[in-house]
Design a protein that fits this description.
This protein is of the alpha+beta class and about 120 residues long. The chain contains two helices and six strands; from the N terminus they run αββββββα.
Length: about 120
Amino acid sequence: MKRVVVLGSAVVLGAVALVAPDPRGEDPCPSTYEFDGRTYVAHETTAEVTPRDALGSGTETGCGDGGPYTSEMAMHDVDGVDPRVAVVSPVNARAIYLARGAEVSDLTPEVAAVVLP
């Protein structure tokens, strides 16, 4: 009987370890965004970044309450910013999606001013 209790405890502890947050503060399943063959990462903003012209559909991949997911989302360009550097989506008005390798300094000064560190 004791073996079952110990084994059951180990299973429960193992499950807790799998869902515990990363002590380094890193997201174990960060959302990424794909559009036109590029991968983008979301950055929060202090103000809405107004979407301009619709560019087409992209995909968001991440983890939610139900596990991993992929969903389609509309991508728009940003005034004065090359879409190879950054795009926005009406799905989240308080975010800008920077292409991997792009820096906030690659944005226009007006847009860069509202991107949170």
